[in-house]
Amino acid sequence: MKAGSIAALALGLVAWAALFHTEIVRAVEVWDGSTAYSHCWFVLPIALYLAWDRREAAAGIAARPILWPVLLVIPGTLAWLAAERVGIMEGRQLVAVGFVQLLFLAVLGWRLAWAFSAPLLYLFFLVPFGAFLTGSLQRFTAAFTDVGLSVVGIPYIMDQFTIEIPEGTFYIAEACAGLRFLIASIAFGVLYACLIYRSPWRRAAFMLASCIVPVIANGFRALGIVVLGHILGSAEAAEADHIVYGWVFFSLVIFLLILAGLPFREDRQEPPAPRRQEPAPPAGGRSPWLAAGLVAAAVAIGPALAAAIDRAGAATPSGVTLPGFRPGPGCTASDDPARPGVQHFICSGLKLTATVQVFPPRTNPGTLIAARRSAGADDLAEDVVTSQLAGAPAWQLVETEKPDRLTATALWIDGDPGLGGLAGRLRQARNSILGDGLAPVLMTVRIGGDGAAPMNRNQHPQARAVIRAFIDAQDDLQAAAIGLAQAAVGR
What we know:
This protein is of the alpha+beta class. The chain folds into 3 domains: about 5-130 and about 280-310, no CATH class; about 130-265, no CATH class; about 320-485. The protein contains 18 helices and 10 strands. It has helices spanning about 5-20, 20-35, 45-55, 70-85, 90-110, 110-115, 115-120, 135-150, 180-195, 200-230, 235-240, 240-260, 290-300, 300-310, 365-375, 420-435, 460-470, 475-485; strands spanning about 155-160, 160-165, 170, 330-335, 340-345, 350-360, 385-390, 395-400, 405-410, 440-445. Strand 4 (about 330-335) and strand 5 (about 340-345) form a beta hairpin. Helix 4 (about 70-85) packs parallel to helix 14 (about 300-310) and helix 5 runs antiparallel to helix 13. It is flat and about 80 Å long. The mean pLDDT is about 85.
């Protein structure tokens, strides 16, 4: 590979990093704060090693820049804009990594990019995706445990994800769904398949096993913890350090996968003979600088359009008076300094913080989702349980550990707190472009954090009751939120 191609790639990657710095920063924050994605720190070194491992096979192939990959940037830009407007960060990150693939393809040409396809495609593991599978994995683990307990004959009562046996109660939390094991297993399986096998069928078979085996193994892990609790006579004893035990169990599963795959290895076969050196591209051929520049210019269209839309709707609502919360039963106002829209209370010995935020009507839905997640700290906690607050369907309750807190949030979009999930994102995405909707309003009631004394899981039922009583003690929050949303747009 000539120095010109390397320099064009380097400049293209610098431009890419500048355009998608938000996606990069957000990914690094997730790697650092979530044990489910801590393996992402190793993806780039592994990709570099895979590229080094394939250097001989690519040694005889000359870089031949091509321009048609620029056309593929157009649907990619549309996909990135859709993900950006709807607030799906994982979608933005996946498309951004796809742009890296197109940059290499345009600068190196089809044959050389294909020679390095394994390390290039491995870069997709930089994206912390897969959280949407958590609910499905929870349901599978619960169903597996249900069947397993029936088979072993342990008496139990099961209510969705809660398992009650005579020795105690277990809960299949989101952290126990097996997502962290599944994602790490897939990343390892792809690496192992690329290094050990050459046949595409053997690679595909091992990758498939790396997807299926950890899901089933996690079911056995959950079942084993419940059975161990029955044997020990204590659910608490069986659950102690279950995350640590889970990683030990996962390591054993990976070791067994390695043993199962070794008899079919192909890495000991003679490697293919190095290619004969191809003649250099003729003078006057397409320049790698032109290819890199066109890809970078096309890729920049999406972020430029998104920035223009955000600038048009960045005006902060003015003339809006944020309402004050009333102390609930057993609550007194705290001496903590108040900020606009933030109040502190002491309720039954627990510190409670209530906040109101009014956003510009054209706010990007991703900003709203990030604010709601930040309020619940569910991006940084180790154990997260998300549910609807009993008796208050508009309020979402998030219980976390490390940090230990309970947070109830309600988000009004166009004056409607029922627009959750994709429907709410699509409505706010429309408002962010057209600018004819009401201002979004986010209300938060939190116990824990902000320097409060640490709680333990036994205090969670009390904290849930305190939050519920506090919300019930307020005046009509629905009317207040709609009034704020209308006042922010001058209606």
